[in-house]
Amino acid sequence: MSRSPHTPLRTPLTRRQWLWEVGGGALGIGLAQLANAKPHFAPKAKRAIFIFLPGGISHIDTFDYKPALASNHGKETKGANTITPFFGKRGTVMRSPWEFSRHGKSGAWVSTMLPHLAGCVDDLTFIHSMVSRSNSHGPAMFQMSTGFVFQGFPSVGAWISYGLGSENENLPAFVVLPDPRGLPPGGVAHWGNGFLPAAHQGVIFGKQEEPIADIHPQAGVSEAAQAATYDLVTQLNEEHLRANPGEDALVARIRAYELAARMQLSAPEVTDVSGESEKTRASYGLNDPELRNYGYNCLLARRLLEKGVRVIQMYNGGHFGKPRINWDAHEDLVTNHGKLARVMDQPTAALIRDLKQRGMLDDTLIVWTTEFGRLPISEGLGEGGRDHNPEGYTSFLCGAGLKRGFHYGATDELGYKAEVNPTTVYDLHATALHLLGLDHTRLTYYHNGLQRRLTDVHGHVLTELLA
Amino acid sequence: MRRAHWALLVFPLFTLPLHAQDLFAERIRPLLEKRCASCHNPEAKMSGLDVTSRGGLLRGGKQGADLVPGKSAESRVYQFVAARKMPPTEALPTAETEALRQWIDAGAEWSGPASIHKQRARAGADWWALQPPQPQTVPAIDGFTNPIDAFLAHKLREKGLAFAPRAGERTLLRRLAFSMKGLPPSAAELSQPFPAALEAALASPQYGERWGRHWLDVARFGETDGGEHNNERFTAWKYRDWVIDALNRDMPYDEFVRQQVAGDVLYPGDPKATAATGFLVTGPWDSVTKQINKDKLMAMSIRQDELDDMVTATMASFMGLTVNCARCHDHKFDPIPTRDYYRLAAVFHGVTYGERAVATEDQKTQRKQLVEPIERELKTVRSDLAAIEDAPRARLLREKYLLFDRSRGEAARRLPVNPIWNRERLAPSTTKRLRMIITAHQGKLARIDRLEVMPASHVISNWTANAAASAESPAILEIELPAPWTVYEFIWSTDAARGSRDGMPKVYRIEASTDGQTWKEIGSSMDHDSDVEVLLPEVTPEELRASIPAGERARWQTLLAQRDKLDAQLRAIPALPSVHAAYPEPMRPAFVLHRGSISKPGEPAAPGALSAISAIDANLAGPDADDATRRTALARWLTDRRNPLLARVIVNRVWFWHFGNGIVNTPSDFGFNGDRPSHPELLDWLAAEFMSHGWSLKWLHRQILTSQAWQQSSQHNEKAFALDASNRWLWHMPLKRMDAEMLRDSILASAGNLNPERGGPSYLLQKKAAGGSYMHKALDNDSPEVWRRAVYRFVVRGGERIFLDSFDCPDPAVATPQRSVSNTPVQALTLLNNKFVLNQAKLLATQLEKSAADPVAAAYDRLFQRQPSTREREIATRFVTQHGLALYLRALWNTNEFVYVP
C-alpha cells in the first residue's frame, strides 16, 4: 500500500507493469502507475462529493437549535465563560434571527433559513460537535481541505484519487467545481496534489463551453486539423519510439494523447445538461437567475458521479473580498446568510434527492462542511454580525453506510463549545476514508522523511455514525 | 484492566509487591527498551554501554561496570537515572526510577531472551550519514580515468553490467545545453568540440538561471505569503537574483550556505548579503493569524510555526535531515531529541518576516533632503487648491447624491455614509425624544454640522462630541422635539459646505423614546450600503471646472499644474531600496516546549545545533546571545569541514539533477527513513574532493560531465533493465522529460522569441484581482514582456492555473527536493491547446515562411538540431499542405523528441 522508503521515488514502470497495463490495455498507465488504486477493505461508498461553504456558515442559525440564545439575548458573557472573538469587538448574546422548527420523522431542528434541506433531514447524518484547530480562515480551511493548517499538503480528493484511482479514464478521477463567485483564499492549494504525483490534483470543471481548461483547440483550429494533429503527433512519437525502444515513459506519453483525445469528447458530453428534463432542471434551480450557477454545478456533480468520477470538491460561497459573498457574516448575519442560503439550499437539497431517487445514495458519500461556525454573541455591541467560532460547529454527512436521520455530538447551551463527543477534522476525514474502503492509518505516502497521512498522527473513525 | 486501575488507586505503584521476574518483564525490560536502548545497544554503544543484555550492563561502558546486582547505590545506571542525567531528554518518572532501584537491589534478575536488542528500527548516533566521509581509494579498473567511472564501473561489473556506449556528439551537445543552461543549443554551440562547449556552458549566465532554479525548488522560493490574504512580496526577487549570481560566480558552496543563514550579520551594509537571508523567510507565512488575530495563544503558536519553517528549511536543505519531526517528540527514526529542535529554533529567535530597508544612512539623508522641500510646497498648493475647489465640489456632489438616492428608490438601502448628505429612513415612531448613538467615526471627534428631523423641519446645527467615541463609550447626540411627532426621516451632514472636515460618524444607531427611560432602535448605519458595495457618484474635472467662479479659474489651473508637477517630482525620486529578507524580531526567551505545545514550556533552550554530530560542539551561544551571534555560530557550525553532511548532501543533489537518480534517492532525507546510498564510497569520495576543491560547484559539474557515466547514451538494454529497471547502477543515461520551466523556455527559444533580459523584478503571469478579492488571477498578457525565462516569473502561491502548472511545476508551499514527473491527459491537452503554444507556432511559422527556403528543415534544425529524414519530410509536406505550417510546428512541440532531453 505505502511506498517503501527504499524504492527510488521516480521508479519508472517495470516491465511487468508495462506488459500488464499496456498489453492488457484496460487502464491508462499514466495514471495507474502512480496510484494505490485499491481499497483496503470492502467499501460502502464508491465515490464522494465534498460540499464546502467558505467563510464559516453559522451552526446556531441553521441546524443547531439553541433556545438559550433567545432567553439570554443582549446579555454579556462573563468570567470563565467570556467569549473571545477572532478580530471583531465583543458583543452580547444574540438570538437567531430565524425561527426553528422540527422536521421529518427524525424531528431534526432546522431554521427557516433552509426550507429545502429541512425536507432532507431524514437522510442526513449530523455532527453537531465539530472543532477546528484555527480561528482564522486560511489555516482552518486548509485543515478541512488537506488535514493540515499549513498550505501545501495533498487535498482530501487527491488522497482519495491516489487511494482508489479512477473508474473512468475519459474523465479525471478528481474534479473541482468552484463557486463562480470566486475561489477560496489559497486557491488551487485546496485541491492540490501536494507531494503526491500531479496526476492526483483536482481538475476544475468550469463553464459548459470549456469544461476543462485547454480542452478545446483555440479558435481557427478545425476539427479535421485537430484530428490530423493527434495523428501526426502519434506517428512521430511512434517513429521516435522505434529509435528508443524499451522506454516506458515514451509509451505512456503516447497513451496520454489518446486519452486526451477521448477526454476532449467525453467532457463536453457530461457538461451538456440540455437532455435533462424540465422538472430536473427546475428542481436544481436552473431557471432562477440567482440559483442557476450553483444549481448547474450540483446537477453537473450528479452527472460526473454517474460517469464514474471518483471524488468531487464543490464550493458554495465566493472569494474573501468586499462585499462579502461567502458565509463570513461579520457585519450583517440576516442579509449575508439570507442571500447565500437562498442560493445554497434548494440545489443542494435537489442533489441529495436526485441521488436518492437514482439509488446512488446507497454507494455515494456526501460531506457538507465549512471551516468553522459562528459565535453566539454579536460582533460588537448592538451589531448584527457574528465572529468566527472554531470551538463548535455543525457538518453533515449523507449516503452510503451511514445512519440516516442521525445526530452525533452537541455543543453547550449557547452553541459555543462542542461538549458532547468533540469531533476533529481528522475524525471526519478518517470516517470519510473508512466509508470509501480506505484505512486512514494505511493510506500513506513517503515525503521528506515521513510516511505522510491525510490524518497526520490523529483521527478516529466515528463508528457510531456507521449503519 | 479494571482491576489494575483499582490497584493503582490503592497502592502507589512502586510499593506493589511484584515478584522479581514479573518486575523485570513488566517494568524493567520496557524501561530499558523504551528509554535507554536507542542509544545504548550493541550497534550504537554510546559511551561504550550496551543495556540490551545483562552481560552488557555488567560489562558497563567507558567508565566501568554499570550494574552491581544487589547494590543500586553503586550501580552507575541507577546513579545516572536518579541524578536525572539520563535519559538526556526527559527524566524518568519516579515510579520507574524506583522500580529500577528495586530490581537492582533484588539481584537484577534477567528473564526471557538474553538480549533484548531488536533489529534496528531507527537510527542512532552511529548512523552512516552522521559519520565523517571516509577517505576512499579509487578502484583501479582499466580504461577509466575519471574516478566517478571507476566507482560506478566497479559496481556495474559486480552485477555483470556495463555502461552504454558513448552518446553521439550531437546528442552530447544537446544534453549539455539542456542540462547546464536549460535551453536548446544554438548552431554555434553545436559546432564546438565537447570540452570547449562544456567550458562555454559553465561560463554562460544561463548556467546560473538553470541551476538557480533547481536551488529555488529546494529553498521553497515564493513571492506571495500564501494563505488567506496571500500578499505579494515585491522585493523577494532579490534573493532569486542573488542565487543566480552566486552560482554564476561559482561562490564556494560553504559561503553560499553561510550567507543564506547569516549574510546580513556577516556582512552588514552589503545589501546583497542581506538579500541572501531571503532563504530563511521565503516560505509561506500566515499574515492574517499573525497580525489580525486577537487570540494571544494562537498568535504565539503562529510564531512557533515561523520558527519551524526556518528550522525545517535550514536543516532539510543543507543537512538533509528532517529535524522538524522532533518538534513534538524526540525524532522517531533519527537521533534528534526534541531539545535539539528547540535549541535550533532558538538560533532564529531574532528573525521574522518582513520588508527590510537596505538603505545606507547616506541614502536616507539624501532622499530626505530631496523629498522634504517638495512635500512642504505640495502641502501649501493642496490647501490653496482646496480653498477654491471644495465648496463647488461639495455643491455638485450634494446634487448628485440626491439624484442618485432618488433613482434607487425607497426599497433600496441608503447611500454609503458620506460627509455631505445622508438620509436616514427611520421606522416611523411617534416620539419627542430621539438620540443618535455614535460608536465609530472619522477624525478625533464626531461632528455634525446640520441634522434635520422630518416631517417638520427641526434642525440641530454645529454639534461636536466632547470626546472620541467607541463602542464602549459612544458619543450621544440628544434631540428633543418641541412636541411628539411621527418621525420617519433624518437628513444630516458633517460638512455640507465643503465636504472636507473630518469627524464623520461611521457606525451609529438612532433610537427613540416616549418616556426618556426605554429606548427603541429605529435606524442605524447598517441601513446604508458600504462604499465598497456601492460607489458614490463623483465630479468630473469638466464639471468642476465649469462650477469654479470665472475669476478664480486661471489661478486654479495654475495650482493644478503646480500640484501635478510636484507629484511627478516626488514620484521620480527613487524609493529607498528594501528586500524581503530576515527581519529583526525582538528576542524572547526560548524554551523546550512539551509535546510542541506553546502553553507547556519546559527547560530554557539556549541556541544549539545537533547533539548527534559529536565532532563539532553543538553549544552555539549562551542564552543571552544576540541575533548576530546566534546565526553566525550556526553558519559556522554548518560549514565546519567536520560536518559530515553539508558536502554529501549537495553533491548528491547535483548528482540527482544530472542523472534522475541520486546516490541517495531522498535528497533532503539522509536519515533512517530516507534512502540508503547506492554508492557510499563514491558519495564520500565526491564529498571529500568537493571540499578540497574549494567547495566549487563548477568543479563538480566538470567532474561529472566529463565522466563516461554522464556521456553514455540512453540506449535501452534488456538484460540491464531486467536486473535494474530503475537504473540505480547507471547502465544508461535516462531520457528526462523537460520540466515545466525548461519546456516553456525551450518553446520560446526555438521560436526565436525568448526575451534574454536578465534579473530584476519578476514579470507577472498572475495578478491579485481588483475589488478586494485575494485571488491571483491568471493574466491574459502573452507578449514579449513575459517571454523572459520562467525563472524570472513572479512565483505566486495558490494562484489561478497557468501553463506551467500542468507540468509538475511545484506550488512552493513546501520544499521540492525532487519534482514528480507525471504524465496525464490534461498535460497533453495543455501542450496541444494552450493559447501560448499556438501563438508561438504562428509567430514561428510566419518567420520561417518569410525567411527560410525550406521551412520544415529549418523547423527540425531549431527544435531537434538535426535534418528531417525523407519519410519525415513526406509526413510534413502532407500535413503542411492540408493544415498549414503553424499547426505543424505546434505538433512538433508536442512530440516526445522535443519534450525529452536525450
Would you give an account of this structure?
The complex is a heterodimer of chains A (467) and B (902). Chain A has 467 residues and is of the alpha/beta class. Chain A has a domain at 48-208 and 309-381 and 389-465: Alkaline Phosphatase, subunit A, CATH 3.40.720. Chain A is 31% helix and 16% strand. Chain A is built from twelve helices and 19 strands. Chain A has helices at residues 15-24, 29-32, 67-71, 115-118, 137-146, 156-164, 223-243, 248-271, 278-283, 292-306, 333-357, 425-435; strands at 47-53, 90-93, 100-103, 108-111, 124-131, 174-177, 203-204, 311-315, 364-370, 373-374, 377-379, 388-389, 393-399, 406-408, 410-411, 418-420, 423-424, 444-447, 450-453. In chain A, helix 10 (292-306) packs parallel to helix 11 (333-357). Chain A is globular. Chain B is of the alpha+beta class and 902 residues long. Among the domains of chain B are: 13-121, no CATH class; 166-203, no CATH class; 252-356 and 585-644, no CATH class; 360-399 and 538-576, no CATH class; 417-528; 835-901, no CATH class. In chain B, 43% of the residues lie in helices and 11% in strands. Chain B has 32 helices and 16 strands. In chain B, strands 5-4-6-3-7-8 form a six-stranded antiparallel sheet, with no helix packed on it. In chain B, strands 1-10 form a two-stranded antiparallel sheet. In chain B, strands 2-9 form a two-stranded antiparallel sheet. In chain B, a hairpin with a 6-residue loop joins strand 7 (505-513) and strand 8. In chain B, helix 7 packs parallel to helix 9 (194-203). The chains are: A alpha/beta (467), B alpha+beta (902).
